[in-house]
Design a protein that fits this description.
This protein is α+β, with helices and mostly antiparallel strands. The protein is built from six helices and eight strands, in the order ββαβαβββββαααα. InterPro entries: Mutator_transp_dom.
């Protein structure tokens, strides 16, 4: 018996099943790396790793969006990390609504903590591998290479822009000093 793969190729059904099972396994493995679905008893749901939080953001977000009651971290339902930024869902005790909570400030797709850490890595002259070694020693989530590169581009543009502005300020300051001290310069030459 033959079967058809997604690319249109004919193969034996048994081979097609093996390929489909392998693809499903790869897909599930990728999902489990990015998202950790938490199940079990209360207290077991909380991840066993350190994290970085912005206290004002956590304090603001630990209130239910519908009934405004305080949320209990032990009612953690889902936990995702994107580098050092974490997102999680907590179930409200009163209204049973799932609330999304961020561990820090995130604007669109850019996390403040991730961009700050990548900026620090660039300033100190280390790359993603060295940064991840430091994070691993602190039991913090690591930053994937693609994510590091994405933040490196964002931070690099900001560094370049600031460097250009600094050069323009220095040039105009030097020009002012020359104009101001032109008589002294003529006398010394």
């Amino acid at each position: 018996m033959t079967s058809r793969l997604k690319n249109g190729r004919f193969v034996k059904k048994r081979t097609a099943d093996k390929i489909n099972n392998a693809l499903a396994g790869i897909s599930n493995a990728k999902k489990s790396k990015v998202e950790i679905a938490l199940d079990g008893k209360d207290g077991d749901k909380i991840p066993d790793e350190n994290g970085i939080v912005t206290w004002k953001v956590i304090a603001k977000n630990l209130k239910c969006t519908s009934c405004r009651s305080l949320l209990d971290l032990e009612k953690l339902y889902e936990f995702k990390t994107g580098g050092l930024h974490s997102k999680f869902k907590i179930k409200c005790d009163k209204c049973a609504k799932l609330n999304k909570v961020n561990s820090g400030v995130k604007t669109k797709t850019v996390s403040d903590i991730n961009s700050s850490v990548v900026l620090g890595a660039i300033h100190s002259g280390v790359g993603n591998t060295s940064l991840n070694k430091i994070l691993a020693c602190a039991n913090l989530p690591q930053i994937r290479n693609q994510q590091y590169k994405r933040y490196e581009v964002i931070v690099g543009k900001a560094i370049e822009s600031e460097a250009k502005d600094s050069c323009k300020r220095a040039a105009s300051e030097e020009k002012e000093l020359v104009v101001k001290n032109v008589k002294k310069l003529c006398d010394t030459l």
